[in-house]
Amino acid sequence: MLSTYWSPIYEVGRHKFVDINTMSGRDLRMFITNHRVEDIERLTLRMKDGLGSKKYKPVDYQQLQAITEAKRFASANIELKIHKTLQAARMTKENTVTRQHRQVWCKEYARLMKAGQRLDLEIQKFLDEEGINNDFLFQMKDNELQLEKERSLFRADTVDPIWQLKDDLRSRLSEMCSYTSQHPLKTQSIQCDLILEQVEYVKKQQKDIIEKLDLECLSVEEEISATRTQAWLSSTEEIRSSLQQIPEEVLNLECPYPDLKESLLKEFQSLDEKYSSRLQNITERLNGLDRCCGWSETDHLIFQSIVDQYPHDMKDRRVLYMDMLHRLFPHKSRQELSDHERHWDWYRFTVEQKKAVLQGWTRDRTDLLMKAVMTLEEACSTYDEEVALRMDRRHQQKVCAELKEKLRQWRAHQEEVARLEGAIAARKQEEEEDRLRAKQQKDEARRNLQKEKIKRYYTQKQSRRDELERRDRQRLEELKGLLAEQARKDQERVQFRQDLLQQRRKEKESQALRLQEQEEERQRRLENLRNQVAVVADLDPVRLMGATKSSKARQNIGAEEEVALQRPLFHLYTYTDTEILSDQRVRIEQALRQAGLHNTFYAKDVLSNINPPRPPRRDMESTLFQNLS
């Protein structure tokens, strides 16, 4: 129980709360008090006798009441601020949600506009492609004309009389307002009663017409819904019945192996049984569900449209469309909306599951059909190959016997041909040997003659090589002499250039020294001129710390009472606008700025080459850049 006390020390107003677990021995002694009945009786007697006590002081209830009121007022202010903050937060959240809804509405509106335009184009394209010989198009156009006539007749019978009655009432009211003094009050009340009766009759008639139209619209919608449901069920049944039948391609194909075809038919039956059971379970579950999930057709259509507006990848998608549904259906709680959403998701999942089962059935059936056709074709081709192989074997045996006989005869002929060719080859070999001996002798004589010619050629070549070497040596000696003479001339030319460069350097140094002396002389003369025109002022601390004319003028000290408002306080020595615009540099700079060329190098070059209208004084000319150069 001690762990539930305050921790460790908190002050609230004038009271202090101490945590027993963390208090010291002194605090514990202060916390534990001894209570005795005699002390209370003794204190009561002292208070009755008019005696006070140092431990207990009288309570100032007015001060406590003031403190309580101040605390209550502060608490009320804090509560008001919290209420305003919560209200501002709710408004901010509402504005944020409304902005997100507006973005979604704009996107959905643009998407529906594009879809409507695309649908109109497809309809127009369909009408253009079908041509004028289609009876369906003529029938649709006749229906459209008939509906337009009925709409015009309905407008003439119901809407136009209401507008006419409205105009009559306005005219009668204007007449009654303008001629109230001429007609008695009783006559006016009778006319008003007649008008009200007529208006009530028209209202009742319009109400009956609207109820009748609503009933017709509801019946048409139910008929369309029933037709759509029947068409969907019929299409589903057609698909199911077509899938449950064994394909005629498999039945009509011939198979030389009966066991193979029987196994293929059993495979089709097992596939149909598997998907039929699954489809039957899904259909039974779908029949037990309501398409509108317990709501009306209109409310369910609104719910479906609102949910489809918000994309699945949008942040806080469910929060947004639940907020919109709560706005559209304020009479339904969030639990009802969540239940309807869950039922609708289950219904859509069941429908998608049924579509997936039908698609899987169709896909597996198509794959099985293709495999069955390929298998039967391969079986037929294999059977044909076996038959052809047996026929080929018989034919090959017959051909082999004929070839053996022919081979025996061919070998006898080949042996006789080989004997004759051997005799002919022996005679040819003898003739070839005689020819080769004669040729070798002729080649030996020709090689000896060629060796003699080669020897004479090498001797002549060596003599020519010696002559060329002698000429090259002589030419080399001549070139060495020419190069030595050229080197001597180059040395003299280099020495001359060095002397000339030294002379020019000395001339530049003497010229720079002369220019420096001239510049020093010029600076000395300028310094003398500055000393001559320098201002010499006496030391006057009183004048320095005293007030000036401008400060007195700002403080209106010593100023006359009547001073002209436009009178200048000081004389300003500067240029007028005429003098500034007369400067050619200003006009050229403005022209370049208007042309957008004032920051280019061309503008800098042009402005640097323009002289001022008045040449500067010689003492104002800067020599900084001259010294730097």
From TrEMBL:
Coiled coil stretches, renumbered: 203-230, 498-532
Keywords, alphabetical: Coiled coil
Transmembrane segments: none
Location of the region described as Disordered in the Swiss-Prot/TrEMBL record: 431-450, 608-629
Keyword Coiled coil: yes
Record InterPro entries: CCDC148/CCDC112
Protein name in UniProt: Coiled-coil domain containing 148
Organism: Lepisosteus oculatus
